[in-house]
Amino acid sequence: MPLAHSPTLQGLCRLCKTRARILPPVSPSVISFHRSLPGYAPTPIVNLPTLAKSLDVGRIVAKDESRRLSLPAFKILGVSWAARKALETVEPGDEVTLVTATDGNHGRAVARTARLLGHSAIIVVPASGIHPTAVKAIQDEGATVETSSGSYDDACLRAMALSKEGKGRLLLQDTSWPRYEDVPRYIVEGYTTLFSELDAQLGSPPDLVIVQAGVGSLAQAAVTHYRSSQSGTRVVTVEPTRAGCVFASIRAGRSVTVPTSDTCMSGLNCGTPSYLAWPVLFRGLDGAIMVSEEQARDAEAPLKAANVSSGPCGWAGIAGAKLLLSGADTRDIREKLSITADSVVVTIVTEGRERCTKIPPLEG
Fold first, then answer.
1. Residue ranges of the domains in the chain?
2. Would 3-73+184-355 and 75-180 be classified into the same CATH topology?
3. pLDDT, tens digit, for every residue of 107-143?
4. What is the CATH number that goes with domain 3-73+184-355?
5. Which DSSP category does 114 fall into?
6. Contact 94, 116 (CB under 8 A)
7. Is domain 75-180 annotated with CATH 3.30.2270.10?
8. pTM of the complete model beyond 0.85
9. Alpha helices, DSSP H, located in the chain
10. Using CB atoms within 10 A of its CB, is residue 359 exposed (0-12), middle (13-18) or buried (19+)?
């Protein structure tokens, strides 16, 4: 895929010159399923007029996922649908243990789903980058938590091994690899409900969506949703500079693994794009950007002013919008993304402050 590079952003932005053709739409049965869940309601959108004015766009909206089905993140959308689909192959009354690796929110969603369905859960967490409070929240759902040495990728390997060690164990992982694609695909399908809600709340698809990328599953959902129509919505990913695997892969033109280090955006601390997400992102993204720890922290203020209680991963979207759209040196980027003074820009508050992530010090 040919790329346009913006040297003025010091290598933190990559714009893609080509985009995917129309992708197949996700079945309407997904959002129908979510609407059937007790307590379901679309999460709110919050206008940020002061930020919109400062960035010279018509409207900036934050889709607030800080309270989704009583959990502090959007992850339950994917997990609940994936569990429903995966458990269709299980005989009623059979004992089931849901197994996954997590850096926080996904694992809690799996633990909650297991508890509600009357199953047990084993959640593997990496040794660093996840706060003890987040671990306790998973344990409070009744799950067994195992700590794995190494990175998030290592935790995924451990979860895969554990899922094969006992009868009735079902791996419910939100990243994929060769021959493990069905469950991650269901999870991505579940995430698309977020974007269906968003379009309905806005009255039409937005001009630009800036979406966080860890392994890329939420971004895959955004691309799948907006490339299943002729909306023209631009989709750009945002990641920490300390864990920019999607950005590095876009730059390399192939999926690559990058070294990672502690970041306040710990839910995005992933070193390898999802096997399932990567080809969709490569063909369907309009761009990829990275933000620093300081830029993420500075992005909390507009959300606090709007009474949105966001965790650090949620700050990333605002930081990405500021990096992408502010200053005269971004004129070329705005032109390539067709962003004007009337454009509607959306960021996703992917987690609430309740997450209590481990926040390492800024680099000196």
1. 3-73+184-355, 75-180
2. yes
3. 999 999 999 999 999 999 998 768 888 899 999 999 9
4. 3.40.50.1100
5. H
6. no
7. no
8. yes
9. 29-35, 49-54, 75-86, 105-117, 132-139, 152-163, 182-202, 217-226, 245-252, 277-284, 293-298, 300-305, 312-325, 331-336
10. middle
